[in-house]
Amino acid sequence: MVALTLELEGLAGDGFAATEMPGYDLVELRQRRLEWDRVVKATHLTACAWQHSCGFSLFVKDGIVLREEQAGRYPGFNDPSIPDYNPRGCQKGVCYAHRMYDPTRLKYPMKRVGERGEGKWKRLSWDEALAEVADGLIDTLITDGPEAIVHGGGTRVMLLTSEGSGADGLYNALGSSAPISTMDIGDEFPGVGVTFGKSMVAGSPDNYFYSDIILLWGGNPAYTSIPNYHFLAEARYHGTRVIAICPNYSPTATHADLWIPINIGTDAALALAMCQVIVKDGLYKADFVREQTDLPLLVVESTGRFLREKDLKRNGREDVFYVYDQASGKVAEAPRKSLALNGIVPALEGTYRAETLRGPVAVKPVMELLRAHLDGSYTPEQASAITGVPRRQIEQLARDIANARGITNHETTNWGKFYHGHLVERAQILLWTLCGHLGRKGAVYNAFDMLSVETNIGGLERRGDQVLLAAAGADPRYAGWREDGYTDEMILYEYVYQSFEKGNVFSTALMYYLQGGLLAQSEKYNSWDPDLKRPVGEYVREAFAKGWQYPAPPGGKEPRVVLAWGGNFLRRVRGTNAIFQHFLPKIRLLVCVDWRWSTTALYSDLVLPVSGWYERTSTHLISRPEDPFAHVVDRATDPLYESRSEWQLFVQLARKIEQRARQRGIVSWVDRNGTERRFAGMEDKISMGGLYSEDDEEGVARDSFLNAANLERMDWEEFKERGIAAYTGFGTGLRGLGHASDLVQGEPIIPLTWHIGEKKLPYPTMVRRIQFYIDQDL
């Protein structure tokens, strides 16, 4: 607040009121009888966790948004016994009009005239501000290269709103790398990614009504998933047992059938203890485990590594694995192109002999190793001492889960914020998998809950099928991939890996770690993890040397310009003091594009005000299986003060870059691939060849909707009037293919059915199964 107070005083000193507001009192207006000129549909473009978007009606009078109200227009399910989505929305969204007219709004382009964070500012015209940003970008392009220009984004960037395509187009035109901010936000699912080979795994809320047990484990959806919480409450009312596992007596725990208080961070031990009971008592689903997991795969007893084809044959492969087939009494190659066992009956216990190139070796299934590990370290007695959960409760809950027809959970982004949180997720998935609680109605593990509109205009993402079609025609690896049983999902991941390797994308978390002093802090206080055998820095350098990880920014360049749009990284990123001390001094130009005085804005060099959500027309391009609907934001009022939409701002910035380069006699720059890029024509690259003018944000929103391949069909005016459109499919991109499921309107969305059902598609893991045993060096 001190910095903000200084900021406002500085503005007042420039001759205009810092708290300048429109000529009305919103509170007083709301006390009158409600009258309105029109009602428009909208949503909130920064939402709860993974894009809970809620359809709202805005009541507008004389260009002022007086009231926000839940629209209540969502359709129901095909099963009439399950309640519909209505009403969606909560107080977090319904207060947005207050934020629109709040004195912390950014009103004008501003330039810092004091030290960073001192709160001394000078007002600029838009032309002056854009010229300064353009010159900073041009200088960096020709002296440091586009890798030194960083998109300091956050959750708003990841939302993929239509008007944000201007920002994407600008970064593509500059040749700057795309940031992956999921990790520094902490809203990732690392254990799910390791175990399933992907993290997009989630179902719809009607699954709760087909479950015997819902485990609310590690989250507090009564607070964090308010629009969808009524499904949990109503499922409980209809007989589903709700169990909350969390350290505190949270609002979610108060409304559960059972609360299990647990010591913070010991959740993996609880899950593994329940697995111990299930394995010891033979309660696991053996056929499911044999087909879907790596638990039958053989491990060489002397080395602890999988038995591979290279162990048995000269020039054998690294990624072909073996089981002991009880039907033939022999070691047999595990099916690779399909999960179907085709008569093989893999053993889950015992020790066997395999003839290798170096002689006979003893081998045993992973399940045998798991059994010994659980019996040795995770009995209910041992876990009780770790977790604080009574032994009898662990045993009873394990049996209840094993005997249930189906269990499900509510996704939480909690574990990605824990050190070793990925092991919590992996232990939970082991519990679900042992009991076969995957791929059926009411048997779902919910993780990364995301859907995206599959559209293709300008800077918006290419569809997965377009990538695959291009690969089939031009990539010499494509035929080999198909011959080797690669699924569409696996091939698309190959291009993701390639993008990291080439520096097209990079991890912002790793950038802050390397460039923001966090690595040095870790090395200085290396005793924080007694299990680390070497200093942290040695692990990091090994990862770079072996190609397990890639520098951030790409090429090892230091960041010089940060365009902070779509997030507030100085509030969000861990180790803030180190970021201020080590990262900010490297930045020659920090530009904040926002609608409010955020922490990042207060420490920026230039601040550019963008319009609020209700002040532009936009299409929300990301949703989730939990609420599979796309939403529109129909412009309710003109942009306040001198704010501009992102689309308008980035088109104008591209034009200014082109103009300033011409005035300075600078023709081109060289990107990281050594390719010469010209400044001429940059605006056309943003505006899609001039198809959309700077004032045509509605055209961008309209066409992104009309060109969507996986939304119900309707014309633009109907979409604006309804406010929502239902998804008709997952699409062909990775956000959709990861769920490995079909989407049928009104029916439960059940992830992983392509793996577990008739298709038997392999998983995109090293072993092509749900993978619990990790034997590689990393």
Brief write-up:
The chain has 34 helices and 27 strands. With 778 residues, it is an alpha/beta fold. Helix 5 packs across helix 29 (646-663).
Proportion of helical residues: 25-40%
Major sheet:
6 strands, mixed
Describe the strand arrangement of the main beta sheet, using strand numbers.
Answer: 5-4-21-20-19-6
Q: What is the 3D shape?
A: globular
Would you report the number of β strands? Answer: 27
Please mark out the parts with pLDDT under 50 across 5 or more consecutive residues, or reply none: 1-21
Determine the structural class based on helices, strands and strand pairing. Answer: alpha/beta
- By DSSP (H or I, 4+ residues per run), the number of helices equals 34
The N- to C-terminal Cα distance equals 44 Å
Radius of gyration: 28 Å
Percent of residues in beta strands: 5-15%
**pLDDT average, as an integer?**
91
Furnish the topology, listing elements before pairings.
Blueprint: H1 2-12, H2 26-30, E1 38-42, E2 56-61, E3 64-70, H3 91-94, H4 96-100, E4 110-112, E5 121-123, H5 126-143, E6 149-151, H6 155-158, H7 165-174, E7 178-180, H8 182-185, H9 190-196, E8 213-217, H10 221-224, H11 226-237, E9 241-245, H12 251-254, E10 258-260, H13 267-280, H14 286-292, E11 298-300, H15 309-312, E12 322-325, E13 330-333, E14 352-356, E15 359-365, H16 366-377, H17 380-387, H18 391-403, E16 407-409, H19 421-434, E17 451-452, H20 464-474, H21 478-483, H22 488-502, E18 505-507, H23 508-515, H24 518-524, H25 536-545, E19 561-565, H26 569-572, H27 576-583, E20 589-594, H28 599-602, E21 606-609, E22 618-620, E23 622-623, E24 629-633, H29 646-663, E25 668-670, E26 676-678, H30 682-686, H31 697-706, H32 716-722, E27 724-726, H33 734-737, H34 753-756
Parallel strand pairs: 6-19, 7-18, 8-9, 8-16, 9-10, 19-20, 20-21
Antiparallel strand pairs: 1-2, 2-3, 4-5, 4-21, 11-15, 12-13, 14-15, 17-23, 22-24, 24-27, 25-26
